[in-house]
User: Fold these one by one.
Assistant:
Number 1:
Amino acid sequence: MIRIATLLLGLAVAALAGSVHAQAPIKIGVIIPATGPFAIIGEEVKNGMEMLFAESGNTVAGRKVELIVEDDGNKAEIGLTKAKKLVERDKVQVVSGVVASFVAYALRDYMVSSKIPLMITVSGADGLTQQDAAPNIFRTSGSGSHQSHVLGEWLYKKKGYRRMIVMAPNYAMGYEQTGGFVRTFKEAGGKIVKTIYPPLGAPDYGPFLSSIDTSTADVIGVVFAGGDAVRFVKQYAEYGLKGKLPLVGSGLLTDDLVLQAQADAAVGIITALNYSRSLESPENQAFVTRYVQRYKRIPTNYAEYSYVGARVIKEAIESVKGKAEDSVALAAAMKKVHFVAPRGPFKFDAYNNPVNAIYIFQVEKQGTTYYNKVIEHYDAVSQFYPWGAKAYLAKPKYVDMANKWVD
């Protein structure tokens, strides 16, 4: 009788624990720059993730979902502190978001040791899905160079450009994103005549623009984002370079976050990216409509990346039947997720970076609105385009090549 009573008590306790566990919310940490110059990007990240879960009633596999948002202040050390707080104190099942490359790199070792999945939805820090890849690190935006590999080849073969000047902010993001189109441009036969690296957040690009000799090149390839992109594009026109030397770059240069502010100065600029609100697919049109209804503004690529990241998390949780505390199983389930996103077909490669379409855009004006018109697209592009993983990873890193491109 005592044994039976003990057994029944144990079963009752287990059932109660299971019931409590079933009701506990799934916690997802979101690390963003909520203050400072990149705060608007952080807001887009939060919006994209919130919208996806709101569309399913903030419930996944019978459990409520709770987003815990933390501000990294756009500083690596603060980002790491917030990641530790989310994992150790808040007991989150996933850490997501992350905008700046230096914040992403700072989180890497801690997140790998924690085994908690890290879903990067913006930062393009190449190494995190290349040399420093790990089973629990994922990215939905794409590595920095991923977006621009097709651009360099296209500029040489389709536009006929042969000599390029390169300009980008003086840190990892700038080196990696320019490295993508510089490498393919050079391998196609082009030459780099000059590289210029202003500091991040430079208030005045005049001294750098004044150093450009337009007679030495037939195109300038640049990488700037956010407020830097607005200032650079406007100043490029003000210094009389627009119309003299074609301006091209990674998609962040004229993405939907900054394009309206750049106005006429941006018309004609060519970029490469995996998303714009102007994509005409049914999936994207529906996404844009819902986003505008909810937030009263058009979505940017940052919102789409985060919406996609949230969907990966949601589908993985459903795959493990709500048992999100099993971080290893959850990461394995995330790796297998694939679907048609607003940008088009989406899946992960072996290094947990997306394989998706890359679009070549040209800025055009329609009435008083500016938009990125698709002029070319490449389906199912890998971050290792066109070499394959083994050959690509044997090449020098772009951060080590920044000052070695000039012929």
Note: Confidence is low (pLDDT under 50) at residues 5-9, 12-21.
Number 2:
Amino acid sequence: MTVDPENQNETTDDVRQVLFVIYADISLLDLAGPLQAISWAKDTETGRLGYHSSIVSLTGGSVPSDTLVAIDTQSMASWFGKKIDTLIVVGGDGIYPAIQDSNFLGSVTKLASQSSRVCSVCSGALALAAIGLLDGKRAVTHWEDSDALRRMFPAVALEDDPIYIKDGNIWTSAGVTAGTDMALAVIAEDLGKEAALERAQALVTYMVRPGGQSQFSPVLERQKTESSGRFERLHRWIRKNLSGDLTSERLAAEEGMSVRSFYRLYTKMMGRTPAKSIEMLRMEAAREYLETSNLGVKSVAFRCGFGNEERMRRAFVRLIGVPPNEYRKRFKLTADSP
């Protein structure tokens, strides 16, 4: 048994080595969340720690985060040739300049080749995509970085909603706190569900979070594909008439087009049908009512054009993974309960 001078964790040959890769301007919580979950995860049969964690950067030394806290690191090269169980690339705004650095990407590639499992937190997925690890694989990142990842790395089968995705030995997670969800899932796979549940209870968080990350992101912003603004005026009109006549015939008339031409152009430019956009705009309005007003769910459903409460409930469950009442409990901004 040895003691690591970097963090004083006791290690043995059967303890899994986890390596966190960081760079300047990481999101501190992207690192701290999964690090906290993994650092104290124990084998429930032996009571011994299941992991040994280290933090690395390209050159080592002190690395600034996006807060006042700087992180002491070892160099990535110091781990070349060593056995690594899990490699985790954390996220942050600094990932964009980092993936322009060939030395950084080369080092990540080398460490990944030595690792049994490779993970990313938040925008850290861009580093895995940049070295080709995500080509043809399902992946997820923070909803704010989804458009950039799609544009830069079209070979990735990017999904918008999951909190985390496992595809083979590659794990990716959504924004910030989703790294903790992923870490708990890794613990469950390695040490068993009981060990992961213990960590979830200690961290006062869900073992399995209900719903996906779209419950936290603006529906239209997350799925927006048009940059020309061609239908911006129409969308403003729809928002003012959510409970009115929104048939394709009415929308086409508003645009001064035939129904066939309107449907074809809209679908081509927006990447979705008019009906899908209307549903998303209704969801956007309903979420705002639930967050900021005391209107009952039935009234919200009527005002937003869903027609009835059950239809709105089905849309919420399908699109963001939670029903309206549960969404309101989590995100209501006013002090009074409805």
Note: Residues 2-214 form a domain with the Rossmann fold fold (CATH 3.40.50.880).
Number 3:
Amino acid sequence: MKTINVNDFKITSKIKLREQPSSYPLDASKEDLKGALQFISKKLGKLQNTMYAHDKYAVLVCIQGMDTSGKDSLVREVFKNFNARGVVSHSFKVPTDLELGHDYLWRHYIALPERGKFAIFNRTHYENVLVTRVHPNYILNEKIPSINSIDDVNEAFWDKRFEQINNFEKHIAENGTIIFKFYLNLSKEEQKNRLLRRLNKKEKHWKFSPDDLKERALWDKYQGCYEEAINRTSKPHAPWYNIPANDKATARYIVAKIMYDALSKYTDISEPELDDKVKANLDEYINKLNNE
């Protein structure tokens, strides 16, 4: 199987999204990819246990992508070897009345991971500069005092929102949250194939909505919004990674490899040592238990 350099996927300078790959052959069979993912997923799970004991860092995993890009299955497969106590997944859909009663970042703040744990945002705070930018009328539901009509949702508004998102991520990173942001880059042709599979297979009908086709018609607009969001918010403390997503197994492996390689560089993450007094009396504790 081809060896990958995770830095090949990190966005470190301004990009054109159409020039980023949606396919990345790893010269491996499906079984080889499945085995490689299983291996690295187990190592990630073990590392998370160490982080749980260390209790100083949290990990936020942000996953974005067009409909059918494989977000749900990626979460299921990459994190299946984690201890359930150490990871929680949040899927941010249309805001509820309660959420609309707060600022747009509130529901994301309260879902942030505790120290020692992973949180997965399956669709993220970036929906607030993606879906709402394609459909700016949604902003009116947020009841922002300075926004009284669509005309108020102008470039200055979006500049401020990007600044707020960058500040949000900088704040949590400076306080111990390690941030990964993955854009699952699916080609328009592959999305068509996946939508057709949903329509042609009865057991997948439940996944399809006519709204999927309405949003697909806005593909170019979404691509422009993604490109700007990535370019304006990929920072050293919160980098974006372009993940070729035309093959789901490849995408899952690349995401897992990126996380494991990055987290392995934190040499201060280790299980805490026992207190000296406890360590000095280990034999006594063992004897007590053995002599019960």
Note: The chain has a mean pLDDT of 96.
Number 4:
Amino acid sequence: MAEFDAQANRQAPIEGDLDPEQSVSDDDDLAAGIRGLSAMVAAGRSLQQVLGTVAEFAAQAIPGADAGVGVTLLRPIGATMGVQAWAATTPVVREIDIVQYATLHEGPCISCMQTRRAVVSGSLGADKRWPRFGNRVARRGVASALALPLLIDGQVVGSINVYARDKDVFGEHAVRLGSAFAAPAAVSVYNTQLLVAAQERAEQLQRALLSRKVIDQAIGIIRGRTGGTEEDAFNRLKRISQTDNIRLAAVAERFVAETVRRTQERHSSASGGA
């Protein structure tokens, strides 16, 4: 039996009541969604694009998601808890997630990430766990919700949030399929997060190296003009940076660009006078 935190006093669909053919079809959809995850290549794609693709596969794999699906990613493990990014398959889910994360800071997704358990609501407008959130979502014509934590070694890295327009849509069957999809989805999302972070660090290092190079060039120009020491030249750049309130590298770039411009003008004048 699938374990989940359900809304009190609500009748969820029972696993044994499912039509056998529909159950087989749902399992096929789950398998197709997981195959899609396996075939997805994150290289060259933004984090937002990957989350959007995972949300689309989740909508295929989890039955009943007629209002849409959202995928949420938390900041990397060890950082301050908070949402790093999210994607949604429909405009209404995007609106719901904005209400949940940015406005009210309550809802099934937040609860599932706090408890690390699937959360089910069959009537959001009457769900006492999130009274403000539930009422707002119900007014948008969405009644049921299923939130699934994305777990890596027991640590929450995000969630999948599934919404339906009718009441009592999600039960044990949907939780079972959703949990089976959430496990590989967590790996895909987390690996993409690591890849993006590594790419950002590499870009930062490259920018730092380029900045160091242009600063060294500016120091050489100043020393050539003044005959001073390397420390004197660096201190001059630093004073200008502080006075003008711009980055040290930008000051250095300005020195180098001005020197190149003057050199080109001299060469142009000399060529014209020859």
Note: DSSP finds eight helices and six strands in the chain.
